[in-house]
């Protein structure tokens, strides 16, 4: 694909790159340096990998890939190049001692950043956006890793909300989504990842969709009937607790349940419903494609969406009345990604980027499913209608919720 040019945005992109660096750096400082050598999720690298990976990506993609600069630390360029997503049971078995000292990693990071900053005007916007969005995506997945660490290993930020917000209990209410066109994908000439192209229209038959995401309280009935307990729930004597980022709270019954795609599918079947397809979700959230957000064109605010780091955890499903679509579906954006029933594949006409061929295509295996929307730890930049997320059906660590369709 030809590189796209948006030259007037370059300086703002540089500012945003600095912001994204500071944001991710602060996440690493939530834990002590020695904790960076822990592996909170067996299927992912140790935290120290990510401390080097974000800038190794920028080096490999921008300094080497665009500017053709000679490597100053080729072993680090390779060591920190690629994340992992192994088949179940194929987790890596490296030792903490296999990884370099934090100070060495930091020197690599600093030199990489200085090199890229000095050449920022020579980097095409599309490539800069790739690095920027890559970093924002990791800002979220880093939270998934940190979430798995025991609370005593993390320093909570000064200002964060821990206790559940009291909100009226919600019951499942349904809305009709009229049949009609949905616009999938990103328009040519706009930035997007390879899996967002080409843009195309799909006609969606009329269907029903729940106003709200499924709550912990609703899912509790499924668990009582023998269904699998969500990964983020933990038992304390007779009652269920929710593992928040910085501690455990009594299960907030009116907050969305965080589930795997398998659990979501099983729950939906138990409830006499199903998950929406990607096209149905798109139709419900964006109608015929004439609005920028589910609620309209006004930008996201905390009242409209639990998105862009407004907090660290889920909030009640009724907390964002201002997010309602014309049909009344709330929180289509924010407060947890929503699983679809659609396996992750390229759209007809998909072409991988020559400079990052495996970004999506490596996951077109039928084992990964599309998620839409976003979580409280998703950067606003990623909250465009065409953005697609994907994970394995049984992967339990991300902020993934569900909404019933019928
Ligand atoms: Fe990455």
Can you put this structure into words, describing what you see?
It is a single chain. This protein has 406 residues and is an alpha+beta fold. The chain contains nine helices and eleven strands. The chain has helices at 10-28, 47-64, 74-79, 102-118, 125-147, 216-224, 261-270, 278-286, 358-361; strands at residues 174-177, 180-184, 200-204, 207-210, 233-236, 239-244, 247-250, 337-343, 368-372, 389-392, 400-401. The strands form four sheets. Strands 10-9-8-11 form a four-stranded mixed beta sheet. A three-stranded antiparallel beta sheet has the order 5-6-7, with no helix packed on it. A two-stranded antiparallel sheet has the order 1-4. β6 (239-244) and β7 form a beta hairpin. α2 (47-64) packs parallel to α4 (102-118) and α2 (47-64) packs antiparallel against α5. It is globular and about 60 Å long. The two termini are 39 Å apart. 40% of the residues are buried. The structure holds fe (ii) ion.
């Amino acid at each position: 694909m030809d590189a796209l040019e948006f030259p007037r945005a370059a300086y703002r992109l540089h500012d945003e790159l600095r912001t994204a660096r500071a944001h991710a750096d602060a996440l690493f400082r939530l834990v002590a340096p020695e904790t960076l050598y822990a592996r909170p999720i067996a299927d992912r690298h140790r935290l120290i990998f990510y401390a080097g990976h974000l800038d190794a990506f920028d080096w490999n993609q921008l300094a080497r890939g665009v500017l053709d600069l000679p490597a100053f630390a080729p072993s680090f360029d390779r060591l920190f190049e690629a994340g992992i997503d192994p088949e179940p049971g194929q987790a890596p078995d490296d030792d903490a001692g296999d990884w370099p000292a934090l100070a060495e990693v930091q020197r690599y990071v600093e030199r990489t950043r200085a090199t890229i900053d000095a050449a920022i005007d020579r980097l095409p916007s599309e490539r800069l956006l790739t690095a920027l969005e890559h970093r924002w995506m990791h800002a979220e997945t880093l939270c998934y890793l940190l979430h798995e660490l025991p609370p005593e290993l993390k320093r909570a930020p000064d200002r964060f909300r821990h206790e559940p917000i009291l909100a009226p209990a919600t019951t499942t209410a349904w809305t009709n989504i009229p049949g009609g066109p949905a616009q999938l994908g990103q328009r040519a000439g706009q930035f997007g990842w390879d899996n967002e192209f080409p843009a195309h229209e799909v006609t969606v038959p009329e269907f029903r969709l729940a106003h709200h995401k499924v709550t912990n309280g609703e899912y509790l009935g499924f668990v009582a009937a023998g269904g699998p307990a969500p990964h983020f729930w933990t038992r304390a004597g007779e009652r269920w607790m929710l593992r928040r980022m910085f501690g455990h709270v009594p299960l907030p019954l009116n907050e969305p349940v965080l589930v795997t795609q398998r659990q979501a599918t099983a729950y939906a079947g138990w409830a006499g419903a199903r998950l929406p397809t990607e096209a149905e979700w798109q139709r419900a959230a964006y109608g015929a494609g004439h609005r920028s957000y589910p609620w309209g064109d006004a930008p996201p605010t905390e009242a409209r969406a639990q998105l862009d780091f407004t907090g660290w955890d889920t909030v009640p499903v009724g907390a964002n009345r201002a997010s309602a679509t014309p049909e009344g579906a709330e929180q289509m954006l924010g407060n947890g990604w929503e699983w679809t029933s659609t396996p992750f594949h390229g759209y007809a006409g998909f072409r991988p980027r020559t400079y990052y061929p495996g970004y999506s295509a490596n996951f077109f295996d039928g084992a990964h499913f599309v998620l839409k929307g976003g979580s409280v730890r998703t950067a606003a930049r990623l909250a465009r209608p065409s953005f697609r997320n994907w994970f394995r059906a049984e992967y339990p660590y991300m902020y993934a919720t569900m909404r019933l369709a019928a």
